[in-house]
Amino acid sequence: MRNIARFRLTVLAMAVAAAAGVSGLAWSMAAQPAPQSPLPAKPNILVITIDTMRADHLGCYGYFRDTSPHIDALAKESIVFDNCNSPMAQTLPTHTSIFTSVYPREHGIVANIAQTGGMYKPSPVLQTFATAIGKQGYATAGFVSAEPVKQIGGLAAGFQKWYEPDDKKVEADWTNRKIFEWIDAGGLKEPFFLWVHYFDPHAKYEPPAPYDTMFQDDEKLDTYMTDRAFGMEAGKERLGKENHTKIKKSKESINLYDGEVRWTDENIGRLCARLKEKGVWDKTVIVITGDHGEGLGQHNLTGHGNIWGEQLHVPLLIHVPGQAPRRVATRVTSPDILPTVLALVPSIPGAEFLKQASGVNVLAPNLDASRPLYAQLPGSRTVMVHSLTVGDWRFIRHPAKGDMLFNLKDDPFELHNLADKSADRASQMREELQKVAIAQSANGKKHKAGEVIKPEDDEAVKAAVKNLKGMGYVEEGSEGEAEGAESEGEEGAAASGKALKGQGYTDDEEESAGAKQPAKDKKGKKEKDKEE
Fold it and tell me: Could you tell me if 443 and 102 are in contact, meaning their C-beta atoms sit under 8 angstroms apart?
């Protein structure tokens, strides 16, 4: 019966692919089960990060729409983590946390753009995973699709082959084209570490046909939105210098966002098919995750940059050929990803990298499932708004707006604040949150993290900041409607700073307002390749 079901799935996938002008061969190959054979001593490693990927908009996480057939098929053969949360709902800081295995306050990159209008300089002490694994004989290659993760931010360190677009962003098929050109030119030398970053689910949502009309309003969407108390208007987008606004409808945003997810999934299928074609699939450990989620109107916030669960909950799949698939309910965070991979495949030489890691192997038998997991708003190494999740409880410290406490088991969508009703628990978690934040600040000092390069001091930084602002990002601490983040204005930020300073924090930097909805941008076809 499983073979019949798989055949039917393959036929359906090929039909959809034909409608989209996709090779039926690629879809068919992507749907085939991976050969099971022992891994070599140094297996290949592929990390795929999907920008702005809400976990609950994938079929393998229970979504009611068929947005992710390729990812879902891989999930059935993988270790799937049901509760992975990003430490911050912004691109560069979280990617840096993934590839250094420390929290943003520890590596020092706490926003895409610093409060001064510059960019954070990467820690001179911490190594990226590419740097560490490259020293162990791995060929390293990175292909990224958008401005926030370009070389200037530090993530290119250690990659012998590096691709980034000259334009602010490119679509997934263009990134795949550059990968396939590199593979066909003989670039895929084993053992390899390959990072692929797709940007398409990030706003604005402009999926190509037929994905732009693939998902439409229906009763299931109504139920989904009602259960999560979505606002019908996702938010307002500021347009032009005079700040005219355009109302963004939640349903329209969700439909287009889902189209972007399905389009990205198709391109992941193509990439997997190419790896199978090249005979490296059964020798490759594969990670699929996101850097953060997206509001889409939940909690009446349209984008990201805030601290709600839907903006932090990301997918995490780890596929290890030869290992049995399973689901893991333990709560994990992005810095845990690579330590867990290294524990799953201990033959990978990762000891040097693990020396710096704050993340842990979450599959360890002695892991404390209720260990505190930290998250924060973008912007400040001293953090005005941050949270701690311990077991099924999440505490959010918001000095200007009041504390919030949620029981995630009974209230998974964070709709009922129990801070007053469970005051003792809230007080206990507030104290623990303070200890964790102070410890991370100390680690940041140890790692010499957080130095800002001003645009006037560096032409490359000046150009990068200009491009990021062109996409709608703003400086940390700026006022104005943000991409999911709530601005308190100067008075609120000052109150927050004063409150935290009294608790032992050392600085009084303003809270981030995150990033505004990106302005419409032509998806260019220029690229920048780096060979070392």
Answer: yes
pLDDT digits (tens, 9 = 90+) for 323-344: 999 999 999 999 999 999 999 9
Residue 387 gets which letter from DSSP?
A: E
Question: What pLDDT is attached to residue 487?
Answer: 32
The residue to which tokens 């916030």 are assigned: 301
461: left (phi > 0), else alpha (psi -120 to 50), else beta? Answer: alpha
**CB-based contact 57:258 (threshold 8 Å):** yes
> 387 CB contacts (<8 Å, ≥6 apart)?
307, 374, 375, 376, 394, 395, 396, 397, 433
How far, in Å, are 49, 382, 387, 487 from residue 507 at the CA level? 33, 6, 18, 19
- Token pair, residue 34, equals 């991976």
Cα-trace Rg, the chain: 22
Q: How buried is residue 412: exposed, middle or buried, by Cβ count under 10 Å (0-12/13-18/19+)?
A: middle
Helix (H, G, I), strand (E, B) or coil at 57: helix
Contact between residue 100 and residue 110 where contact means Cβ atoms under 8 Å apart: no
- Could you tell me which of 305, 336, 297 has the C-alpha nearest to residue 57? 297
475-525 confidence digits (pLDDT tens): 554 322 233 333 333 233 333 334 334 333 333 233 332 333 333 333 444
Tokens at 162, concatenated:
């590096």
| pTM over cut 0.70 | yes
